[in-house]
Amino acid sequence: MYLFLLVLVVGSCVGFQGWRTLLNNFAVEEVGLDGLGMGIVQSVREVPGFLTLLAIYVILILREHRLAALSVVIMGMGVALAGLLPTLSGLVFTTLVMSFGFHYFEAMNQSLTLQYFDHAEAPLVFGRMRSVNALANVMVGGAIYVMAKFMGYAEMLAVLGGVAVAAGLWALTRDPSRQDLPPQRKAMSLKGKYWLFYGLTFLGGARRQIFVAFAVFLLVKKFGFTIQHVTILFVVNNVLNYFISPYIGRSINRYGERWVLSLEYATLAFVFLGYAYTESGMVAALLYVADNIFFNFSMGIRTFYQKIADPRDIASGMTMGSTINHIAAVVVPVMGGLVWISNYQAVFLAAAGMSLVSLALAQMIPGQLEKRQQQG
């Protein structure tokens, strides 16, 4: 299962990171989008995330590992088609295809990891996967930096999407599953005892969408970053994440989720304040790097759920969590785009406020949970 997920993570990463790296420049230079148009595209991107709860019914027909592989194939197809449709409607369509594949794979990836690896192993596996993801991102950044000199957007997107399709097709020929695990409840469920997991997940989705939709857009629109600048920034992020991510998993085992998540939320409050008020492109770029590093701490939300959940609720919990994560994400980019027109700073101030609310909620993670981790 580790090798199976590893190949799919790399394939998914190549397609999604390539799309993400090229998106803002492609949208501005080829499609001619403004802040509102970008907000629309980013909101549409989150609709499949909101519908991830339907995956619990898909696995009535397809086993989880099959759905994971098929999802990466679909994601790659969406990326490959994006450059062929350089209009707002075309970008909306290909973004939907890409996003369905990406979000369904993420839900299956998290579910399979929490099912196949125990409480001590899961944070380490998440950390290693983030590290591998970062290394693949560096390679993607280097490839784009070179390809941009010889290819247009359509050709680059086709190559990057093709890699994801190939990884998914390989995985469709494999069966890494085991029969001795607790059977999963294949129905939607929203349980009161998981309220803290739901709350942290909801706020994380809203806050993350402000970052995804508007942080790079700020760099491109306000500070004039080129595709080469954005690519270099992504490479720097991922070199750092390659080395740091495994330590985050170990920190969860050593210090517990409450400590790790509190550090993340306190830092992000300052990062978003920086986005709102800085007049320096270099400072904004450094804030972007810090934002990327601390985003990896969010794996603590999932490991927290693993420790409090019934083992039969893992699959339904991950799909429900993904849906809750995207409830706000569906509307935040469009609302943020409207607010951006009159005052872009307010967008980032709202994210800073969300970080502080998350910090308060993180203090409710049971202390005995951390104690058990440290003893283990």
Automatic annotation (TrEMBL):
Domain of life: Bacteria
Keywords for the protein's UniProt record, in alphabetical order: Membrane, Transmembrane, Transmembrane helix
Annotated TM spans: 39-60, 67-85, 153-173, 194-220, 226-247, 317-341, 347-365
InterPro entries the record matches: MFS, MFS_trans_sf
Pfam families cross-referenced by the UniProt entry: MFS_1
Keyword Membrane set for record: yes
Name assigned to this protein: MFS transporter
Naturally occurring in which organism (per UniProt): Pseudodesulfovibrio portus
